[in-house]
Design goal:
It is a single chain. By secondary structure, this protein is an alpha/beta fold. It is built from 9 helices and 15 strands. The chain has an 8-stranded parallel barrel with strand order 1-2-3-4-5-6-7-14, surrounded by 6 helices. A 3-stranded antiparallel β-sheet has the order 8-9-10, with no helix packed on it. Strand 4, helix 4 and strand 5 form a beta-alpha-beta unit. Helix 3 crosses helix 4. The longest helix has 19 residues.
Length: 332
């Protein structure tokens, strides 16, 4: 099994090249359609772009993981089958999958390809993970971001596959693969259409005093003072008012980023095989800085040296960072 593999975001061909050049062991990406959970305008790959990207990555010794991590709706499965077939033709190294039907199709049709179980499958128990391994031959599970390091250590002793955890990016406290908030507000599903807070339904309105309101599908998600930076309107990170909180409060989670750089030695010791950086929607500058910083840190830990941890707070959401539930769970 691999140890300390760095799995990095590639939202565009340019970002993929940047991630590979900055030291990524693997990059993950998706097509420009609903088969991946970041189906936004301006992101993702055409088939020709993916073919060239696979060659670039392989020439530099990196692997390409194709995200097919959404759930096909009734009557729509052909899109996911075609995506899997094309990925095999283009030479991707593994698929990141969530839906059981997609798992079964790839395991049956392309048995030589690795299957990685997406965090969108929300498999957090040894029994659930073993089922995917035994039924579909899954080689790696991406664990939800709600587990502590002792829990990860225990899971590792009970499953016959590799473990991948997020180490930087979205905090992600919602139950991945099960969130229906954006579907309620917009009619488009994160899990089936691959789009959370679709851009064409986002509005920004500034009043005469300079205050900014952000809306999604006609719903006000947050209001910002003239001196505040207005964030992208995501329902789970919005501020809402009620009688107890007329000034507004974060009902689900506040804008903050996960940063586990300090816990890298503990995660490796717990048996984590691969570390995932989130951010397919982020800039090339973000990708370059975060990937190169974690490349240095992972290499230092593997060599038995103290990692020189870069200050990445400027690249976090809301310029705030947390270690989340990975040490202790503190629910609202």
């Amino acid at each position: 099994m691999t140890t300390g593999e760095l799995v990095c975001p590639a939202g565009t061909p340019a970002s993929l090249r940047t991630a590979v050049d900055a030291g990524a062991d693997s990059v993950y990406c998706g097509y420009q359609n609903a088969t991946n959970a970041r189906n936004f305008p301006g992101l993702n790959f055409t088939p020709d772009e993916l073919g060239r990207a696979v060659k670039y990555a392989h020439d530099k010794g990196a692997k390409v993981l194709l995200a097919l991590n959404t759930y096909p709706p009734a009557g729509g499965f052909e899109l996911w089958k075609d995506a899997a077939d094309l990925g095999a033709k283009l030479g991707v190294d593994a698929y990141i999958v969530a839906d059981m039907g997609v798992c079964d199709y790839i395991a049956t049709t392309h048995p030589d390809k690795r299957l990685h179980l997406s965090v969108q499958a929300a498999a957090a128990s040894p029994d659930a993970i073993r089922y995917y391994v035994e039924k579909f031959g899954v080689k790696r599970v991406v664990l939800p971001r709600i587990l502590t390091i002792p829990e990860i250590r225990e899971i590792k002793t009970e499953i016959p596959c590799e473990i991948e955890t997020f180490i930087f990016g979205n905090h992600g406290l919602m139950v991945e693969g099960r969130c229906s908030l954006t579907n309620y507000a917009t009619g488009l599903s994160t899990n089936m259409d691959g789009v959370c807070s679709p851009a064409h339904l986002v509005e920004y309105d500034r009043d005469d005093a300079g205050n900014m309101s952000t809306r999604l599908g006609g719903f006000t998600i947050d209001r910002f003072g003239a001196e505040e930076n207005a964030g992208y309107p995501t329902i789970c990170k919005g501020r809402y008012c009620n009688e107890q909180h007329p000034e507004g409060y974060y009902a689900f989670e506040e804008p903050i980023s996960l940063n586990l750089s300090r816990l890298l030695p503990d995660l490796m010791d717990a048996g984590v095989n691969a570390f995932k950086i989130e951010g397919r929607q982020r800039s090339r500058a973000y990708v370059r800085k975060v990937v190169s910083s974690f490349r240095e840190a992972v290499d230092a830990v593997r060599a038995g040296r103290e990692p020189n941890l870069a200050d990445l707070v400027a690249l976090t959401e809301g310029q705030k960072q947390t270690e989340g539930a990975f040490q202790t769970k503190k629910w609202r």
